[in-house]
Structure formats: structure tokens, C-alpha cells
Amino acid sequence: MSLDGIFLQSINYELSNKLTGGRVDKIYQPDKNEIVILVRNNGENHKLLLTAISSSPRVHLTGVSRKNPEQPPMFCMLLRKHLSGAHITQIRQVNFDRILEITFECMDELETTVHKSLIIEIMGKHSNIIFVNSQSMIVIDSIKRVAENMSSVRQIYPGLKYVTPPDIKANPMETDRASFLKSLEATNKGIFVFDFIYKSFTGLSPFVSREICFLAGLNEGTCLGELETEEKVSLWEAFSKIMDKVKSRQYTYSIYLDENKEQYGFYCLDVACLKDYERKMYENPGNLLDDYYFEQDNKNKINQRVSSLIRSLNTKIDRDRKKVDKQRTELLNAEAKEKYKIFGELILANLHAVPKDHKLSVVNYYDPEQKEIVIPLDPKLTLSQNSQKFFKRYNKLKKAEEELTKLIETSLKEIEYLENILYSIEACETTDDLDEIYTELIEEGFMKKKSKVKKTKEQKAEFLTFISSGGHEILVGRNNLQNDMLTFKIGKKDDFWFHAKNMPGSHVILRAEGSELSDDEYVEAAGVAAYYSKGRNSGLVEVDYTKKSNVKKPAGSKPGFVIYETNYSMLTKPTMEKLAKK
């Protein structure tokens, strides 16, 4: 289901009632394709969201707070210049299409009253927010500029006149019985009924077309040429029933859930074809859209920022693995060092012997069977010098073995750390979570700080919190910095600490609060630790748990790294379904 002309009509109705006559207080641009306008009207503050993000374009009142950049973008500065202190005079939907125009009364540089409009076009990847002069309809600027090389049909650029997108469809709000039936007769008889409805009328989505077919008792795949007269009348009556609800504003806002409790879609009218679906009801379109798009918006913003970071981390991990393979090969060579020590000592024990063909045959006193061994010699050196050469090679390989062992251990720890970072990125739920990961990578030297930004006040970490069946808190770290804070600053010595065994995952603390914990609570906390780990999609995950006092952090170790002893383990399913989220 999409935000179509009918849904936008309901939004237009709410915005007109609440914002008309209101004064623009503040303007923000949290995202490159998103504007938030704070409006004061009738003693109340309203937050208007306009977003042209291709995956979730929309306009509505919002209650969600968004993080604003340190430096406002140019489009935001332009709107502030023209619209700060302006009053909203009109909000209208253009031709029942997915276009909303908000008109403002403001003052120009000469203190003359002028009218300017923000036009939001909700059209998937072509969505846009356009700022125009209301009288001349000349574009002042837009959040997405569309030049001729991007579209030969319609350009959106400062100085050009704004023209609505080309559309030859009929307005369903102005369609009567005669014109509807006439349109039926004039349309290609081979087209499906389903296609006819949404392709012939502005603002109707495929979903509404499916609902009209359902109400009319018609198969969506029926061709127009196959319709009997009674069926055509039934189709008109179903169409008219939907439009009457819109005209009388019989809006009911619902999110429909499928059998897995996942969001299936949303709409502003009762949907008969989804009567068997569970649904969540809302009082207004803003609350519905906030709820529906909140998680999706966060994921989209995170994905936009992390794609290059994930590639960079994977490249670093691959290089580290290749480096470890090479170091292990070198280590195998170094482990042959004892041979050179024996050569040196046997030569010293046989300085009186006479070499033959640049080789020295002697009894190997280190061999239990006392077998004879042939030692290759450098003809340019004496026996004593050959002995010293072998000792030097032995010492060099001995030192190399020690260094390679340390390097391999360091490389393996770095791989483990980076894999944990990748998991933390996958587990990000907000851009704030991602900012903490960026901060950690900068502090650890894996990323360079791109610019000098004003350091913001450190915010208190917000841990995921669940309530166990026994009423105790189960706290979950979202990333390495939070894991360290949770384990060593928040957790108390009698609390229990959980972590998925030998895989990246969150630190989980089960609060004891001086009381006895039940077996079910241990299982619940272990399930949470398994769920917030790389093994989330596995059938069973082994989870280690122990008293928090048994968990230690080695000096100089990377964030999130701990050691522990006297732990217990259990195999559990990754789940948190039965737990209440705090």
C-alpha cells in the first residue's frame, strides 16, 4: 500500500485544520531530502515533516525528534531566509494527485507582502520539495534540482517556471456515473479491470483498485470486454462507495499486519479485502506514518552511510587474513631453527675434522640413534666461521618466531574486533548508534576524522532494556562502547553477565538487585544474548554466563574485549518474544 491521492487528501484535511493561519517558528533539514518546519498556531506547536526520500516520501505532522546537522544545508538556509516568521495561508492538494502545495504569506527585502509556496511531490524516486513564487510560479530552488540531462520532460531549476507533472487521468472526485461508464466503454477492451481503475483516475493506487474489484465482486484479471452490464454497474457502485467515504471524510487510520505480525501496509479507510488481517488503529495520519516509517527511515539512513564503511572493513579483514596466512607460513619456516643450532654445535665439536666436497660428515650426538649427518658448508669460510653463521641464522629465526607469534595474535585480535564492529553496524537501530561506532573507529585509528566539528555534550547511553518474567531488568549493549560501559560501569558485581560464545555479539546484563534469580530468567537473558549476536538466525546458540565480578578487561585491550573465568554455558534459542520491552 502506498501514500496515494486518497491518503494525501486526508493529510491535507488535517494540515488545513491545524496549520492554516499558523506562524513559521523554525526550519530544520535533518537529511539532504528532508525538511522539518515548526509551526505555532492557536497556542499549540506543530512539527511538519516534508520528506522526498525515494523509499518513503511523505508530508505529515510528526512527533518524532530528528537529529539536525551542525551546519544547516543551503536549501534550509534559503527557506529560513524567506519563510521564518511567515504565516501559512493555504494548504491544498493539486488535482487530487500526490502533490501538496503549502502557501505562505511573508515579507520580501522591501518589506512588501508576498506569497511563496512549498510544493511536495510524492512520486517515488522522482519525489521533490520545490520552493516557488506563488504568483509567478517561478522556481526559487528545490531540494532536488532536475536538469535537462536528467529529464527531457520536465526540469526543476531556479529561474524556471514550475509545471505540474503531465497527467491525462480523470479526477475521481469529479467523476459521476455517466462519465465513469463512458470511460469504461472508451477504454481498450483487452485491459484488466484492475488496471483500468488506477490507470484511468488520478490519485488512485493499485491497492484501491484491488479494493474496488473486491467490493464489486469481480476478479482483478477480468478484461473490460468480458464485463456484463450489471458488472459494470457494480464496478461503478464500488468506485462511488470509496469516493463517497473520501468526500464525507470517513477516515480510519490503520496499519495492517500479516500472519507473522510484520507490517503489511497502511491506509486511511476501512479495507474490506483485508478484513482477516490484524490491524493497529491510529487517531490521525501523522501518528500512523511515524510508526510505520520510523524503523524503515532509520535503516535507510544507516544504509546510506555505512555501505562504504562496510566495504572498507571487509577489505581490511581480508587483508588481515591474507597477512595471517603469510605470517603462519613464515612461522613454519622459523620453526626449523633448531636444525641450524645443531649444525653450529656439531661443527664446533668437530673442528679437527676434514670437510669433503664442501660438506662435513659427523655423528649427530642429538640423535638417539647417533646417525651420521651431512652439514653443508660455505667454502669461503672456515669451520669456525661456518659454525657462527649457523648460530646467527638460528638466533634470527628464533627472534622471527617470537615476533611472528605476536603479530599473528595481534592480527587475529584485530580480525575479531573488526568482525564485532561489522555485527554492531548490522545491529544499529538509530543513527546515534552509528555515530558511536564512527567515534570508536576514529579513536582506535581505523578511520580519520574528516573535519573538525564542535564536540557535543556526551549523551547518556540508552541501553536496550527488557523485563524478565521475574521482574528483573535485562540490559543490552548496542555496540562496543556501550558494551564496556554496561559491563564495567552499569553492571554491579552480583549481576549476571551473558555473551554468545566465540562470536560477535552484545554484552547482556541480568540485574540481580540482591534477590534470587529463577532458572527461567537465566534462560531468558541467554536468549537475548543469543538474539543480539551473529548467531541470531541459528537454531541454537551456545551462551556463556557468569557473575559480572568474574569479567575483566585486560589493560590496553580494544573496546568490547573482555576475559572471564568460572563461567557456565547453555544452548538456547535466539529469542526475546516473551519479554516486555521497557
| Alpha-beta classification | alpha+beta
Principal-axes geometry comes out as: elongated
Strand residues, percent: 15-25%
Largest sheet: 7 strands, antiparallel
Write up this protein.
By secondary structure, the protein is α+β, with helices and mostly antiparallel strands. It is built from twelve helices and 23 strands. It has helices spanning 5-19, 74-83, 177-186, 193-200, 206-216, 229-247, 285-334, 337-349, 383-426, 431-443, 480-490, 519-531; strands at 23-31, 34-41, 44-51, 58-61, 87-93, 99-107, 113-121, 128-133, 139-142, 253-257, 263-267, 278-282, 359-363, 372-376, 464-467, 473-476, 496-500, 508-510, 541-547, 551-552, 563-564, 568-572, 580-581. The strands form six sheets. It has a seven-stranded antiparallel beta sheet, sandwiched between helices. Strand 10 (253-257) and strand 11 form a beta hairpin. The radius of gyration is 35 Å and the shape is elongated. The two termini are 31 Å apart. Residues 452-457 have low confidence and may be disordered.
Top keywords for this entry?
single chain, 582 residues, alpha+beta, five-stranded antiparallel beta sheet, 12 helices, 37% helix, elongated
Summarize the structure.
This protein is α+β, with helices and mostly antiparallel strands. The protein is built from twelve helices and 23 strands.
List the helices and strands and how they pair.
Blueprint: H1 5-19, E1 23-31, E2 34-41, E3 44-51, E4 58-61, H2 74-83, E5 87-93, E6 99-107, E7 113-121, E8 128-133, E9 139-142, H3 177-186, H4 193-200, H5 206-216, H6 229-247, E10 253-257, E11 263-267, E12 278-282, H7 285-334, H8 337-349, E13 359-363, E14 372-376, H9 383-426, H10 431-443, E15 464-467, E16 473-476, H11 480-490, E17 496-500, E18 508-510, H12 519-531, E19 541-547, E20 551-552, E21 563-564, E22 568-572, E23 580-581
Antiparallel strand pairs: 1-2, 2-3, 3-4, 5-6, 6-7, 7-8, 8-9, 10-11, 10-12, 13-14, 15-16, 15-23, 16-18, 17-18, 17-19, 19-22, 20-21
Helix pairs in contact: 3-6, 4-5, 5-6, 7-9, 8-9
